[in-house]
Fold these 3 entries.
Entry 1:
Amino acid sequence: MEATALRGYRHLPLEDVMPAAALALPTLDEVRNWPATVDVRRAALALGISRSQLYALIQRDEAPIRVLDFGAKRVVTASLVRLLEAV
């Protein structure tokens, strides 16, 4: 089944809407070089899950990473690195 983008690009393959580099999972070394906190979208990419899945985990207090809430949720990069190192 071909991945397709939703909102306005329903018939285009996702790769045509978003560059392949943006879809690639970051390496552990790349994550280690991220700022002290990152947004949920970026953390979800590193975990290989969708942004909405990570938000659901955060809402249920089941996220395996440390999340700060300053109005907008921020993920502590060090907790993300620890989780990825354990995998």
Entry 2:
Amino acid sequence: MPLDGSELVEVQKEGQKLLVQLRSFSNRIFKVVTDASASRKAKSSDAGARIVMTSDSACQVVIPADVDGSGFDDGASFEVEQGGAGQVTIVPADGVTINTAETLMTAKRYATLYLVRESANQWHCCGYQQAAG
């Protein structure tokens, strides 16, 4: 029976179980989105993408609340890379929680953060992050 990409795969990261849609693994290497703006609002079409923020000034990617019609499914994931000199900060909208071991900021140029939607308004972020103080 062929797989269609809608299957959920359980991934373990530091003892936590995450459900990630199989298509997220296969699509993410094929879809690269470049953004030079100071602020980007994540949208469901970003699922499976690598978003490269190329600003030379500090910039942000906003994770919208479900009430804003974000359209992300549980297990949806995407990457955010600091492609320019400007540090990238992941900003949760009101009502959104992003669990992380460090900060929600890239460590330096070419650092990549990986975001996974765990459930309604609940996200997980890991990657090459600026260390928490």
Entry 3:
Amino acid sequence: MRSRIAQGETLPVPVSRDLAELGAALRAGRARRRETQKALAARLNISATTVRAAERGDPGVGAGIYAALAWALGLPGLSTGMPPADDPPMRVRSPKKPIDDF
């Protein structure tokens, strides 16, 4: 099983766009806090290279790293592109047929 997106493989355009937006939000959050990539990386016990990759929207960065960065920077969760969960679809079953014993 591969753990990384191979060089040259393409993702759906909306996914690439969402990752780029998430990376930009991480970069903006870090800049707002006036924190360097190196300092943020040290705080989360990851490498500065990983922080740079996440800020670029690299699909090879794990979801847990994105979540940790968002948490450390006080950003909302990873709900980018997700539909609202206000009204989950209900499962509809067909009515049971009555048993006719006669």
